[in-house]
Each structure stands twice: as structure tokens, then as C-alpha cells.
Amino acid sequence: MRKETSPPLHPSHSSTDSMDTVPDTLSPAFATCHPVTRAFDIFASAVTRWTGSPVAFGLAVISILVWAVTGPVFHYSENWQLVINTGTTIVTFIMVFLIQQSANKDSVALHLKLNELLASHRPADNHLIGIEDASEEELRSLAAAYLRKASGKEEASAANA
Q1: Are the beta carbons of 5 and 126 closer than 8 angstroms?
Q2: Number of folded domains in the chain?
Q3: Is residue 139 part of a domain?
Q4: CA atoms within 13 A on the CB side of 121
């Protein structure tokens, strides 16, 4: 028999909001709603897959080697240093957003899988579904409760009562 869900962790959550625990903009399904967000999702996924490849790593190493080899040609000038500094800054700035998009998508997928496992396991306490939206204080409180439960202190205090 499945346990009844506990009251919502936050007053804004109702016991009936089964999928509203994931903010719309973080959901992979959100990207299908608007052509621009869908295009960005496809682009970000492709770029993060490609930049994590050995070919991309090789090209980065070759670029640095070419830059280093051209140092004597340009007499290690400030402009020569500025080229690598500017290039790496631009690439880093853009990659932060692309990697974060992929991380958000992966995080949502992972939470959905965990929610499915919790929902499908009969003795599981279903109030943990959507816990990723809890505040830091609520998460710390739950973590402390589970630590007490794991150490047996909760059982010992219940036996003494």
C-alpha cells in the first residue's frame, strides 16, 4: 500500500501539482514551446557534445601550440598576448551558457527519473518528489531528520517516550 503524500513543503505547492514542481523554463519540454528556445536547446546540446570530444580538445591544443610558436615572430608583444587572452575569454564566456543549458536539462531529467523511482516504490515516502524546489533551510532540516533516522536516535527517543 502506498503512503499518502505529506503536506507540501512550501505553501505555494499544492498536493495536486504533480508536474508543476519543475519550473517551466528549466524543463526540456519548454524548449519545444518556442522556436528560439528549441533552436537554442538543439544548438547547446550539439555544441556541448562536440566540445567534449577528442577532436575539439585536439583543436584547442593545436591552437595554443600555434599561438606559442608564433610568439617569437611577434616578439611576444602585448598584441600577441591579447589574442590568446581575448580568444579564451570569449570562448569561456559563451561556453558557460551552453554548458549550463545542458546541465539544467540533465538535472531535470535526473530529477524526473528519481521522481519516477520514488513514485513507483510502494514504501517510499512520496513527499520527497519535487524536493529540488525546497529552500536551503527545508533541505537542511530534512537532511538532519534522515541523519537522526539513520543513526537510530529517532527510534531511541520514540522508545523512551
Answers
A1: yes
A2: 2
A3: yes
A4: 13
* Rounded Cα distance, 133 and 13, in Å: 10
8-state DSSP, 17:
-
Residue 143 and residue 93 in one domain = no
| Residue, of 29 and 89, whose pLDDT is higher | 89
Residue-range definition of the domain harbouring residue 161: 134-161
92 lies in the same domain as 140? no
Q: Do residues 108 and 22 touch, judged by C-beta distance below 8 A?
A: yes
Tell me the residue type at 147: L
Share of the chain above pLDDT 90, in %: 35
Residues 13 and 22 sit within 8 Å (Cβ to Cβ): no
Evaluate whether 28 touches 150 at the Cβ level (below 8 Å).
no
Alpha carbon distances (Å) from 49 to 45, 79, 121: 6, 32, 34
DSSP one-letter code for 28: G
In a domain, 58, yes or no: yes
Q: What is the pTM of this model?
A: 0.59
Asked if 36 and 101 sit in the same domain, the reply is yes
Rounded to the nearest angstrom, the gap between the alpha carbon of residue 84 and the centroid of all alpha carbons in its chain is: 30
4-42, pLDDT tens digit by residue?
Answer: 444 444 444 433 344 444 445 555 555 557 888 888 888
